[in-house]
Every structure is written in structure tokens, then in C-alpha cells.
Amino acid sequence: MKLPTKPHTLPMPLWLQGVLELGQAALISALVVIVPVAAVWLSGGLADRTIDSVARLAGQGWLVMHGVPLVLRFPPVVAGEDAVTGLLHAIPLGLVLVPLLLAWRAGRRLARASSDQLWQGLLGALLTYAAAGMGVAYLSSTPEASASLLAGALIPPVSAGVGLIAGAHHRAGTWSRVVGVDLATAVGRASQHSRWAGSYAWSVLRSGALAVLVAAGLSAALLAVTIGLNWAGIAAIYERLDGGVAGASVLTLLQLGFLPNLALWTMSWTTGAGFALGTGSSLTPLASTVGPLPAIPVLGALPAGTLHYGYAALAVPVLAGALAGWWFFREGENHLDEWLVLKSRQRWLTATASTLALAVFIGITAGLGGALVALVSRASLGLGRFTELGPDPLLLGAWLALEVAVGAVLGHAVGSLLERQPRRR
Fold it and tell me: Which residue has the higher pLDDT, 398 or 382?
């Protein structure tokens, strides 16, 4: 007797699965904005708006969450003059993690479903997210605020693409399936000197990235302590606002979204470069000059006036550089020092030259990384004096490069003392 078999089904095309995966990610990330905005509207916080207006506001919030700038238009102060325009630009790094993590999950699922045509799924997914961004930019446009259709199509896929590729690589375990190039084979064809140079450069890059990561982590811890110590002032601002449960919840969500930005601004503060909260303002470890600020509770933790022990914060980037130098020593990829030893027998000279060169390379790498994160964390509200919010990327990069380089010299020297091989008897 022949048993009934399960009917054969056609497998889903990989590009279609990519469309569904990131389409789902776009919808879920939209709910992160729609739910709070709808809660405020239902509680009477946006009573003067229609449901269409609230929907467009949510769409603009979705675009801002992905880093898409909005063109704001304000009515003229004097009748007969042209309308005043400004550019609102901010990347809430805490909220952008939502689409990034959803895309990371989608990348893993696409890599699991693909054997050798992964690019089809990635391309279909990114085109879907670009279409979603363009559609939201078109539908959410109002006379008061609008986004460029080109920006709506190109900027949201950036965060989604990073998560998508990272998730696909994590699942695939090799870049050959993601980009179609076997990097290990390509490196194997290079000469020995090229591989040594590549290993040295790769270790320097990772050391510089480690320095930025440690500096940002210590700065985040410093920010958390500062918020804890000033919690009474923050709570007082919440009480004065009296926005109800819905309003306070949305305000808290907004602050959590910008908390990583504040951590990076704190990192700039620890380097001595400081950051600005409006045109003409400056916050540094030595002194703070700040004008009137909006009633945002987390701003109640800002330092004010002259800080007698603020210079102690400069130890944060130096410590980050020391850990980076120590890590590089433990990595054992100092091929520049090995090459210098072959060229000269003066060990004191070759050791000094290789250590100073290493410190310069790590410092430059960390400085470039610091300038990049400063650029990403900056914001502009597009009106009045609040067009400059955050650190100066060039100033932060220069200060961080110098301080990390000093710490790298110390860390490499300490590593050579602590990591000595025990003597054999």
C-alpha cells in the first residue's frame, strides 16, 4: 500500500525572502514610533492634530530615528518676509539599534536559507528598505516639515545594511558567502612580508578601535554616575513638566534613545575637547559656559561653573590608550620592531623607535575613530541657537589621538614588564 506523500512545494526565492524579512523589520521599527505618538494623542497631548497629522508626525519620527534630516519651515516673524527654514538632523543611537538588530536577525535568516546566492537576498532586502524609506518620506511630508525623497531612500538602508551584513556574516562564518570573495585565499597568495605588514596594520586598527571602545565605555560609566548623583534635580524637572504618564513615558524613551549620544559627548568632555549645547556654549573639564536650555530632565545632570578637579577626567583617554598598547603587546604582532632589529643592533634605539611609531599609529587610528563617532553623534534642532549640539569632530579627534598615543606608550612599556616569560631553571 502506497502511503500519501506530502505535496512538493516550490522554495521561496531568496530575493523574496529578503523583501519579507526587511519589510517586517521596517514595520516593527515603525511601531516603536507609532505606539508612543498614538499614546500621547489618545491621552490628549496632541488634541489639536487630526489622525492624518499624527500619522505624518509618526512617519517623520521614523525617518529621524534612522538619521534622515528634516527640513523645517517656520512662519516669518515680520509679515511680508520669507519663511525661515532650518535643518533638523539627529541620529538617536539608542533608537537606531532597533532597526539594526532587526536587520541583524534578518541577515542571519537569509544566510541560513542560502548556500551560494546570498547576495540576492541582501539586495532584495536593501531595496525594500530603500523603497519603504522613500515612501515614508513622501507620505509624511507637511508644509512645516519634510524630508528629501533621495535621503529617505538612501539613509535608512545604511543602518539596516550594517545589521544585515553583520548578521549574515555571523551566520555564514566567512566573508566568501557574503561578498563572494575568499579573503583567506587572497591573503595566502601574498608574500610573507606583505602578510607581516597586514598583520601589523590589522593589529593597529584593532588597538585603536579598542581605545575608542574603552574610552566610550568609561565615559558611559561616568555619565551614569553623574545622572545618579543629580537624580534629585532630574526628578524635579519631571515634576515641573507634569506631562502625565504618556508624556513622561515618551520623554523618557526619547532620552534613552539619545543616551549613547550623551555618552559619546561625555567622551569628548573627558578628552578636553568638550562639546556644545548651542551656539556660543562650551562644556569642558575645566569650565562650563551654557546658555538657557530646554526643559529636558537629563540636562539637569550637566556640570556648571568651574570644576576644580575636572582635569582628572583626562585620565580616561590615557587609560584607554594604555589598555590598547598593552593589548597590542599581548597580540605579538609587532613586526615593525622585528624588522628594525634586523636593521640595527642598537636595541635601545629600535625599541624606542618601534614603540613611538606604534603609539603614533594607534593614536591616529583612535583619533579617526573618535572623529567619526563625534560626527555621528552630533545633532541640530534647526532653529535658533540650537543648531550646534555635540562635539567638534576635528577637535575631538586631535585630542583623542594625542592622549591615546601617550597612553599607548605607557601601556606597551608596562606590558613588556608584566608579560615577561619566566626564567627556566
Answer: 398
